[in-house]
Specification:
The protein is an alpha+beta fold. It has a single domain, classed as GAF domain (Beta-Lactamase, 2-Layer Sandwich). The chain is built from six helices and six strands; from the N terminus they run ααββαβαβαββα. A six-stranded antiparallel sheet has the order 3-2-1-6-5-4. α1 runs parallel beside α6 and α2 packs antiparallel against α6. The longest helix has 47 residues. The protein is globular, with a radius of gyration of 19 Å.
Length: 189
């Protein structure tokens, strides 16, 4: 990560403002990964959420990584980042040799040296992962972990708000369509 080129507090405010300035879920997810990557000077960032069954992590947004790397294969929730889903940050200093990395050869080809994962909490449970990738070996500090954990916590709130908005909007649209159907059927009688 950057050597305090940006103070964490300033970066946190900038990222929070960026992700809270929209209620569109896709926009929120993209802003999370883009701003986190840029503010930390990292190679890439991925945001993954658990599927409906809670078995696999699905990539919801990414920045700075190739489509080929993203499409390398499914990520099992019980293998590479199980500790993160239990609420613990995970630091991988060498992505090419650490046994927790499911696709070490692909990481090497992508130019990934180190990885840090922090949990994203939705409704009180870890439901996803914010993962940061560096192109040079990195020894993440506790300050780095605390900063990324704060971003992940803010991200969880922003995701929840965007999902809630989509739900309310969908229900409103259904409700507005209902009177139209009723009016049309009464005209037919």
């Amino acid at each position: 990560m950057k050597n305090n080129e940006y103070p964490y507090f300033s970066a946190f405010i900038q990222i929070t403002q960026a992700i809270s300035s929209s209620i569109d879920l896709r926009t929120v997810l993209h802003r999370i990964v883009k701003n986190t990557c840029e503010m930390t000077g990292s190679k890439g960032c991925i945001l993954m959420l658990l599927d409906e069954k809670g078995e696999r992590l699905e990539v919801k947004s990414f920045y700075g990584l190739s489509d080929q790397y993203i499409g390398k294969g499914p990520i099992s929730a019980d293998r590479s980042i199980a500790d993160t889903l239990k609420g613990n940050p995970v630091i991988i200093e060498d992505a090419t040799t650490d046994p927790r990395v499911q696709y070490p050869e692909e990481a090497k080809q992508e130019g990934i040296a180190s990885i840090v994962s922090v949990p994203i909490v939705l409704r009180g449970a870890s439901r996803g992962v914010l993962r940061l990738y560096t192109s040079v070996p990195c020894r993440f500090t506790q300050d780095d972990i605390d900063f990324l954990s704060a971003i992940a916590a803010q991200s969880g709130l922003a995701i929840e708000n965007a999902k809630m908005y989509e739900h309310v909007k969908s229900n409103y649209e259904k409700l507005m369509a209902f009177p139209s159907s009723t009016e049309q059927s009464s005209k037919l009688e």
